[in-house]
Automatic annotation (TrEMBL):
<feature type="binding site">
    <location>
        <position position="189"/>
    </location>
    <ligand>
        <name>[4Fe-4S] cluster</name>
    </ligand>
</feature>
<dbReference type="InterPro" id="IPR011257">
    <property type="entry name" value="DNA_glycosylase"/>
</dbReference>
<dbReference type="GO" id="GO:0046872">
    <property type="term" value="F:metal ion binding"/>
</dbReference>
<dbReference type="InterPro" id="IPR004036">
    <property type="entry name" value="Endonuclease-III-like_CS2"/>
</dbReference>
<keyword id="KW-0479">Metal-binding</keyword>
<keyword id="KW-0227">DNA damage</keyword>
<feature type="binding site">
    <location>
        <position position="196"/>
    </location>
    <ligand>
        <name>[4Fe-4S] cluster</name>
    </ligand>
</feature>
<keyword id="KW-0326">Glycosidase</keyword>
<dbReference type="Pfam" id="PF00730">
    <property type="entry name" value="HhH-GPD"/>
</dbReference>
<dbReference type="InterPro" id="IPR005759">
    <property type="entry name" value="Nth"/>
</dbReference>
<dbReference type="GO" id="GO:0003677">
    <property type="term" value="F:DNA binding"/>
</dbReference>
<comment type="similarity">
    <text>Belongs to the Nth/MutY family.</text>
</comment>
<dbReference type="InterPro" id="IPR000445">
    <property type="entry name" value="HhH_motif"/>
</dbReference>
<keyword id="KW-0378">Hydrolase</keyword>
<feature type="binding site">
    <location>
        <position position="199"/>
    </location>
    <ligand>
        <name>[4Fe-4S] cluster</name>
    </ligand>
</feature>
<keyword id="KW-0411">Iron-sulfur</keyword>
<dbReference type="GO" id="GO:0019104">
    <property type="term" value="F:DNA N-glycosylase activity"/>
</dbReference>
Length: 231
């Protein structure tokens, strides 16, 4: 089975498993989505949603985020990891939006990455979910699944993983594939204790087969520490 055939197999399986996979960050507009994704770095979507439930009631516009002292905004997102740095970036982002973009989130990927705290992954999430532009954002789940299934190499960078997925997946399927791979990694192929015994992709997963072999022989999983990732 070549790389393209394997990818097609993966797409069919994750499509059947998670046909309704979607962005789980709660938001009602591109600005809220950008803030939510910024907050989600090294933090679970569940925690972000708990924080934004009240945050998005208090702050609705870039002006709102600039109307309070930085310390107050820090307090509002204190439950989020790296909250001080993220609070500072939110205010810098809000200021730049007002100065250069009329207070609106830009639609172009290149412009999005100019915003403080917005990297390639965040920009991919925003353009695909807010503006309908096909994109594959490689978060910790997508990276882990891609490497476990052999779609990417273990030492590939996040950008290399993204490029390989973009090459193997039809462009019109990029966004839904991104969501389905996240759901597969979050709810099935977890960082710790992946569901290898009941995995429908075990046949194409060299690592999963080795895990099962190790489990059957009582051999310790030598890759366990290496393959465990946060998120």
């Amino acid at each position: 089975m070549n790389a393209k055939e394997k990818m097609n197999r993966v797409l069919r399986v994750v499509g059947d498993m998670f046909p309704d996979a979607h962005c789980e960050l709660h938001h009602s507009n591109p600005f809220e989505l950008t803030i939510a994704v910024l907050l989600s770095a090294q933090c679970t979507d569940e925690t972000v949603n708990k924080v934004t439930a009240t945050l998005f009631q208090k702050y609705r516009t870039p002006e709102d985020y600039l109307s309070v002292p930085l310390e107050e905004l820090e307090g509002d997102i204190r439950r989020i990891g790296l909250f001080r740095n993220k609070a500072a970036n939110i205010q810098k982002l809000s200021r730049l939006l007002l100065e250069d973009y009329g207070g609106e989130i830009p639609r172009e990927h290149e412009e999005l990455t100019k915003l403080p705290g917005v990297g390639r992954k965040t920009a991919n999430v925003v353009v695909s979910n807010a503006f309908g532009v096909p994109a594959i954002a490689v978060d910790t789940h997508v990276e882990r699944v891609s490497k476990r299934l052999g779609i990417a190499k273990a030492d590939d960078s996040v950008l290399e993983v993204e490029k390989k997925l973009m090459k193997l997946v039809p462009r019109e399927l990029w966004t839904e594939t991104h969501h389905r791979l996240i759901f597969f990694g979050r709810y099935h192929c977890k960082a710790q204790n992946p569901a290898c015994p009941v995995c429908p992709l075990l046949e194409v997963c060299k690592e999963g087969k080795q895990r099962m072999k190790n489990a059957a022989t009582g051999k310790p999983d030598s890759k366990k520490k290496k393959l465990t990732s946060k998120g």
